[in-house]
Specification:
216 residues, alpha/beta, Rossmann fold, Arc Repressor Mutant, subunit A, 2 domains, 6-stranded parallel β-sheet, 13% strand
């Protein structure tokens, strides 16, 4: 059976990088590039016209990029915005995620990290480039009102299920068996949960999830 390909749009005002990304995704049969652009206004137009599954967006280009992120997140669901930028600062990542971006990846990352970001955000998870994910999540908590933080860090259904099992003191193997997933997948979810909730241990994950109202 033919599986629907993931539609991707690319917005960046650096022609060489834009062409390189287009070529990268063209080589992947699971993806199709539906549009490219060079400005914040192009991003809005592409989101409205094509409704891509994933929209990669640079932060340093003409127009109000943060306003564009917010409008896309508000109006063009289920398009997910992933920032792909050279702006290596916690502040820029925090602003983008607060505006509604689902992911943040630094230029210079391996192609595998771009594909990893797509997989995460399509599962409803937040993805932050590995170099400073913890710093960005701490920044989100320190800057945003609690309601905004809880919205940005909202746990998806699978994460809530795993936290529920943690509250029953179950091991990774027991959780994997109960949810019919691999033990390695449970470990990956646990890492994500610790980053999202700024938790230091399995027990702390459960405590922070309850404290922040993530299980309601």
């Amino acid at each position: 059976m033919h599986q629907t390909r993931v539609s991707v749009a690319l917005v960046d005002d650096h022609p060489v990088l834009l062409e390189g990304m287009r070529a990268l995704f063209a080589r992947q049969p699971a993806f199709r590039v539906v549009a490219t652009g060079v400005s914040a206004s192009d991003a809005l137009s592409i989101a409205e016209t094509h409704r891509p599954d994933i929209l990669f967006l640079d932060l340093s280009m003409p127009g109000d990029v943060f306003a564009a992120i917010a409008e896309i997140a508000r109006r063009f669901h289920p398009t997910k915005v992933i920032i792909f930028t050279a702006f290596a600062s916690v502040d820029s990542a925090t602003r983008a995620l607060e505006a509604g971006a689902a992911g943040f990846v630094l230029k210079g990352a391996l192609a595998s990290e771009l594909f990893d970001a797509i997989a995460h955000v399509r599962r409803g998870e937040m993805f932050i480039t590995h170099q400073y994910a913890s710093q960005v999540l701490v920044g989100l908590r320190s800057r945003a009102p609690r309601e905004a933080v809880n919205g940005a860090l909202k746990l998806n259904l699978r994460e809530k299920q795993i936290v529920g099992h943690l509250l029953q003191a179950r091991t990774n193997r027991e959780i994997a068996s109960s949810l019919s997933i691999s033990e390695q997948t449970v470990k990956r979810y646990m890492t994500n949960l610790m980053l999202k909730l700024n938790a230091r241990s399995r027990v702390d994950v459960a405590v922070q999830a309850q404290r922040n109202g993530q299980l309601d």
